[in-house]
UniProtKB/TrEMBL annotation:
InterPro entries hit by this protein: AAA+_ATPase, ABC_transporter-like_ATP-bd, ABC_Transporter_VariousFunc, P-loop_NTPase
Origin species: Anaerobacillus isosaccharinicus
PROSITE patterns xrefs: ABC_TRANSPORTER_2
Molecular-function GO term, any one: ATP hydrolysis activity
Lineage: Bacteria, Bacillati, Bacillota, Bacilli, Bacillales
Protein name: ABC transporter ATP-binding protein
Keyword field contains Translocase: no
Length: 288
């Protein structure tokens, strides 16, 4: 399913959450949707899932607007950080309701995942811990097999081992039944291995959209004696630097910087990771 966001602005009274945003998502890819607090990620995901309408511009899924469009919404599943299940229902009833909504629903996957997350289907959702609620959301998201599955910080309250279980199962599921997965997260280090493409929002605008490996290849981190580092980085696009007692570490971004020259100068060289790039590229001091 083709996802196009065309020149979308979304305002809440005086606040502009998204400003003339144009971005597209391809079929069957895992996207990392990243950005600082308030960058507009949740707003974008809610627009994609038809929860709300843009103030201007268009959100199109296979050429149709998702808002109030059952034909399209059956293929989109958005799991939020705070899923509000009807408290009277048992877990199995919540899953039943979801299964009626999503035509590709896999009951087998749902049952497998319940076991993986140690969820007893007869438990009422009323008494669930935060982590268990998150697990139910994850079960729904994965078992829906919706063509577009969106997770907005889905693991609040999940401990590290449950989160790693989620990442493993997500990848397994994706390999068996490819779909478009959009993952918004602040735990970038944990999740970035899953991303094929990275979309970074900043102040409601698109800062960059790139293949994850290409993104990392465009970066270079060099460390060593300050004067040698300065000699190497002169004229290059520095996105961050830190200096302690005559030693400097500098991150560069924007070109396929050759590591050979830096190594020949005796500098230590490595690529930046996605988390570093998100943080440094969105620093308000304009990158420097
Ligand atoms: N319902 C709303 N009413 C008023 N302002 C809102 C509303 N929803 C979002 N905003 C504002 O729009 C901006 C973008 O918010 P959004 O939740 O989309 O960002 P985000 O990137 O998901 O942030 P976070 O990482 O903190 O969850 C923020 O300034 C937020 O305060």
């Amino acid at each position: 399913m083709k996802v196009e966001v065309k020149d979308v602005t979304k305002s809440y009274r005086s606040k502009t959450a998204l400003a003339n945003l144009t971005v597209a998502f391809e079929e069957d890819k895992i996207y990392g949707l990243l950005g600082r607090n308030g960058a507009g990620k949740t707003t974008l995901m809610q627009l994609l899932a038809g929860y709300t309408l843009p103030s201007s511009g268009e959100v199109l899924l296979n050429g149709e607007t998702p808002f109030n469009n059952r034909n399209i919404l059956k293929d989109i599943c958005l799991i939020n950080e705070s899923e509000n299940f009807k408290k009277r229902l048992k877990i199995k009833d919540v899953l039943k309701v979801a299964s009626l909504f999503y035509p590709n629903w896999s009951q087998e996957t749902a049952e497998y995942l319940l076991k993986q997350f140690n969820l007893e289907p007869n438990l009422k959702t009323k008494g669930l811990s935060k982590g268990m609620e998150s697990s139910v959301g994850i079960v729904i998201g994965l078992a829906s097999r919706a063509k577009i599955t969106i997770f907005d910080e889905p693991y609040i309250g999940l401990d590290a081992s449950a989160r790693y279980k989620f990442y493993d199962i997500l990848l397994e599921e994706y390999e068996t039944y490819p779909r478009t997965i959009i993952l918004s997260t602040h735990l970038i280090d944990e999740v970035s291995n899953l991303f094929e493409e990275v979309v970074i929002l900043q102040n409601g605008k698109l800062l960059l959209q790139k293949d994850k490996d290409e993104l990392v290849q465009l970066s270079l981190q060099v460390s060593g004696k300050s004067e040698v580092v300065d000699q190497f980085t002169k004229g290059k696009n520095v996105i961050h630097e830190a200096e302690i007692v005559g030693m400097k570490t500098v991150q560069l971004f924007g070109e396929n910087y050759s590591s050979e020259e830096a190594i020949s100068l005796g500098l230590q060289v490595e690529r930046c990771n996605v988390q570093q790039l998100m943080v440094y590229l969105t620093e308000e001091r304009g990158g420097k």
